[in-house]
Amino acid sequence: MQAVIIEWIQPFIPGFDLAIASTFLLLVLVVVAFFREWGSPDVVALASIGFMLLIGILPVADQVEDGVILERGIFSVFSNGAPITIACMFVLSAGLERTGAIAAIGRFFSRIAGKSEIRVLLVMMTMVAVLSAFVNNTPIVVVFLPIVLAHARATGLKASKLLIPLSFAAILGGTCTLTGSSTNLIIDGVAQDLGQEPFGMFELTKLGIIYTAVGFVYLLLVGRKLLPSRSSLSELIDSDATREVLTQFQVEPGSSLVGETLVETLLKDYPHAQVLEVRRRGRSLVTPLNELTIHEKDRLLIRVYGEEFKQLKDEGGIRFEGQPDLNLTQLETRDLKMIEGIIGPRSGMVGKTLKEVGLRRNFGINVLAIHRQGVNLKADFDSVRLAFGDTLFMEGPPEAFGKLQEKSDFISISDVAEVKVNSKKVWIGVGIALLFVIGASLKILTIPALAVLAALLMILTRCVSAQQAYESVQWNIVFLIFGMLALGLAMDQSGAAQLLVDGIMALCGDFSPFVILAVVYLLSSTLTELISNNAVAALLTPIVIGIAGKVSYAGEMGVDPRPFIVAMMFGCSASFATPIGYQTNTYVYGAGGYKFNDFPKVGIPLNLILWVIASVLIPVFWPFR
User: Fold this and answer.
1) 421: phi then psi, degrees, rounded to nearest 5
2) Strand, coil or helix: what is 52?
3) Which carries the bigger pLDDT value, residue 492 or residue 244?
4) Among residues 500, 455, 487, 454, which one has the least CA distance to residue 473?
């Protein structure tokens, strides 16, 4: 196919290189698809592999001659250790979560945090940062979210003053070790493929600790003053609406409802009541209430609440005061529970409407409001397609929420999950994690090999079951990384990356490596705020290493790429300016009742401070020669 296309275009564009042109076209399409959200990032990334196979940008298998690899094939990216390591780190985190180790630390936070806002922030951020240096930070934030919210309610603190610092602390902690951030592993893996020395487990720690300390000081002295004092979704709903009861009635002969519509009778006198369902001969009727005529033996499912209905709960039953002619027989009465829950990235609800999900039909749960991107929707949201990070305010029977949480469709932020700490398993899980860290620091084996062994030990010791291990891996991230590694390989081997390097150096060739390093960091950080940090890591690494070879320093051409690689690692990991740049930011976005501009208000100054610190200290810790 390549030959046909080249033969057709060559007369019009002499010197046309199909591989370079196709790679640039694909790069533009992928970036636009990320921005416009034409599909989920992992699907877009995998589609790019399909495009490369179709056009023939890369060979399918490695091209080998006399035992030497002349050109790497597209499927060689699946041998890269970074995605495997990241998948195993998810399993390692799941083992610590399932044994109750993380929950135990969370409960310890509740005991020592106190009531002072500064003390709560300091204790919380310290615990989260230390954990995030060694464990995937997403489950840490998921576990701490309801604990921090419960502590805020108990002490009268505003959750909006605590949750952005919770996410930022998790991000800062992840910069302290090689395995603390998935982007570190990706950049290290790609750099090794390009002939660079592997990074040590704690090679980044010296700068990571400075990052974390500076971030803490900023958040405690400046950032917390920029945070809004705003109510979360549950506080925005009128308190009268939370006194609710769900009751089922049967319409008996002689009732004044027979032959009338509910709008003209019951709902006219009780406007705050809500008829959720009318069943006739075992079937749920879909006719609008203002058109539905009530028959004898119809069953009404009614939700009642508010000041008008204080008298309705009477000895375990319901009665409508002043309306004896209704002649309704109570069949069932249930107490309702109200909770807030966040839609997770792997939830089966993502992309579906509430009607398609069928929470009322399948679980008896009603959604009262949706919080999305700083807006609280209280009506007309049944047709809204749910997305990762949406916060739902729901009511229903307590047992129904238990069933829903078992499906991992949402994360409750109203209830602190009762995780039983298995005293034997918890120390096994912690021991496996410590062995992994010690093995990585002593370089007993490569980090991917150690990660596989640690994940396997978690399963064999039953800290986590095989099924739980599979479910803990965020496969969308893993496949996104594979797709971006393939695109990065195409840019490197087609010559597209070199062309970009030449163009960049034509503009910046006279600048010192210190200035170029600052530009690399700023570019990495900016792109991370807009598209996936993992995608940025895979795409920029070959370009940045190429730039290092073209930089002139002390009268010689070419410098050590390591400082530029480190700048990328910190630039891609330290994402504070938007709620979409990092997954933990998305989790706290809805839970804290934040608006989009709350993140840049607090995050951009921190990004700029850390940019200056990185630009000054990276060349000190990792010299250009």
Assistant:
1) -85, 115
2) helix
3) 492
4) 455
Which whole number is the average pLDDT over 326-339?
58
Contact (Cβ atoms closer than 8 angstroms) between residue 257 and residue 294 = yes
Distance between CA atoms of 233 and 442, rounded to whole angstroms? Answer: 48
C-alpha 318: how far from chain center: 44
pLDDT in tens, 103-148: 788 878 888 888 899 999 999 999 999 999 988 887 788 778 888 8
Residue type, 424: K
pLDDT for 310: 43
Residue 50: count of CB within 10 angstroms of its CB: 10
Cα separation of the two ends of the chain? 46
Spatial separation of the C-alpha atoms in residues 520 and 410, rounded to whole Å:
38
The answer to whether the CB of 396 falls within 8 A of the CB of 364 is: yes
Burial class (CB in 10 A: 0-12, 13-18, 19+), 315: exposed
Contact 273, 309 (CB under 8 A): yes
Distance of alpha carbon 104 from alpha carbon 417, whole angstroms: 11
Nearest to residue 249, comparing CAs of 277, 270, 224? 277
Q: Which residue has the tokens 């589609």?
A: 47
CA 310 to each of CA 210, 305, 313, 474: distance values in angstroms, whole numbers, following the listed order: 57, 8, 7, 47
For residue 143 the two structure tokens come to 């576990």
State which amino acid sits at residue 535: A
Query: What's the rounded Cα separation, in Å, for the pair 87 and 83?
Result: 6
Place 239 in a pLDDT band, splitting at 50, 70 and 90. Answer: very low
Across 368-396, average pLDDT: 71
At residue 564's C-alpha, the angle toward residues 559 and 568, to 5°, is: 170
Report the distance separating Cα 174 and Cα 303, nearest Å: 46
pTM for the whole structure: 0.75
Do 454 and 433 contact (CB within 8 A), yes or no?
Answer: yes
3-state DSSP assignment of residue 201 = coil
CA 453, 456, 462, 468 torsion: positive or negative? Answer: positive
Dig out the tokens for 191 from the structure.
């750099």
CA atoms lying within 13 Å on the CB side of residue 198: 15
Percent of the chain residues topping a pLDDT of 90: 22
Structure tokens at 604: 């951009």
- Whether the per-residue pLDDT at 604 is higher than 90: the answer is yes
Distances (CA, A) of 461 to 332, 419, 426, 431, 519: 46, 19, 11, 11, 47
